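Re: weekly structure request thread

Next one in the queue (616 aa):
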Amino acid sequence: MRAFINLRRIGNFSLHAFFIACAYFLAYLFRLDLVFFDSPRYIHLFWGTLLPLLVIRLGFYWFHGLFGGIWRFTGVKDLQALARASLQGTLAFAIYAYFFHHGTNVPRSVPILDFILNILILGGVRMAVRIYWDSGRKSSKDRKDSKNILIVGAGKAGEILLREIKDNHSLGYHPVGFVDDDRNKRNLTIHGVKVIGNTRDICKLTRFYSVGEIIIALPSAKPKQFRRIVSTCKRAGVKVKTLPFIGDILDGKGKISQIRDVAIEDLLGRESAKLDMTLVGKELTGKIVMVTGAAGSIGSEIVRQAARFRPKKIVMFDRAENDIYHLEMELKGKESETTFDVFVGDVIDADRLRECVTSYRPAYVFHAAAYKHVPMMELNPSEAVKNNVFGTKNIVDLADELGVEKFVLISTDKAVRPTNVMGATKRIAELILQEKSAAGSKTQFVAVRFGNVLGSNGSVIPLFKRQIEQGGPVTVTHPDITRYFMTIPEAVQLVIQAGAMGRGGEIFVLEMGDPVKILDLAKNLIQLSGLAPGKDIEITYTGLRPGEKLFEELLIQGEGVIRTHHDKIWVLEGRPDGLDSLSRTLSRMQTAAKNGKATDIKPLLKELVPEYRAGE
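Done, posted below.
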């Protein structure tokens, strides 16, 4: 392979030398006409200056990287580099000719003609190769098998996508046109493909051109705009695809040319969160960060996003050795100034937890380890209490004792007026932090409360996808049940931002937007799979599960919120009463959890969380 590449470069170099010589010869011929052949003086001058000209021009072409390019991918930047190299070469040769040939022997118009001819010949050859490849050397069979597609978005992303389609015939796409809502682009042509309408014309154009697929090339589209376009495409009755998420493109995890199916995250997505990079950087850069529950959906994303701020080390604490291993392998495959250490352990094992914290002395702790499955915790309340309450208490006590600078608890909207054990235990976890802050701890304890995240382990979306793949039915607990949703990356961005803003004792609430009907979610997923709800895939109702609420809340009655300087983060006003008796009740709860009796545990949950209504 290396020999082939070297051979290609030698060939490229030789072609440049040949075309430079041709341009120089034609410059003399245009200047002197047929007199050139009858003039030994000019013939001698031509041969005497050809080698210096070749050295000068080839040197500048090498400097500008013109030998490394592939001609069939020639673009504007390549032609600009050719023009710069040719101009610099012409000036250098003119200086050489003046000093070494007394400025009179080489006709002054020859370098100018040579400059023009170099650009025309070398640029023309490059573009001819590009046009030859772009004209589509496809067989009639390939053309017959190609799928007619419509590209939504005639901007930069659409242009890159079109180039990829034209260069990669194996995709099997034949673009019939662009649609774009910018009136100024109407009837314009991009690489031979015309802008034939706007998004309101999609249904009509799909029928007229027999379109089999629509690709939305708008990676930075506003969520509302994206939903409108997808809705129009669904009415057209064709498959819809799109480009990678803009965040993935910026992070290098995706390319514009990587076409993918439209995901439910695209339809429920919101405006991307803005981080105060300076504030967060001051909090995390150069420090040791510990993440409990690091193998989970939220914990692993905290690890990934925290690494962007170059902490000295991230300690990943989790008991799920397989999942934490996969995360470690993922991180090892990336270049990073941060080192990543794995510590296998359980937050309910106080000794193992102490070993970790004393060994690493983290300055920052994100506590994401928790049981979260509502029906399962209803059946196993003692385990929910051990993990969510006393696991939290273990790490909180250690953070206070060993002088951790900041501690951020991942909380949930299910802690608000809980009707289930899981929500009640998370509310108690919040109280443990507030009790420690009220006692004057030097550690800044902060909790961040938010709703469901899309695609997390065990959430409703992966379940629906599996049911659709199996041919249905898709099971919804109640036709009117609603939930708040945000994407995992957005939730984690806001958790990190809120953590940086906290000064101790606060409970931050993330702005979750409008609640989403789970029934609508199920219908959208079925339609995105190219199927019809109620026709191809049935939807059945199973009834609310133990501890499940019809709707979630983000605030407890009587709680007030204050807007922070971040438009997606609020902070609760005031502090709860009854923190003085928290320790005594927790002592009794610990005994009850060890005994494993639900009848003993639930009254204690009610005592600590008066708004808890079991089984409602």
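The chain has three domains: 2-134, 140-262, 277-452+485-511+555-608. The chain has a mean pLDDT of 83.
Next request, please.
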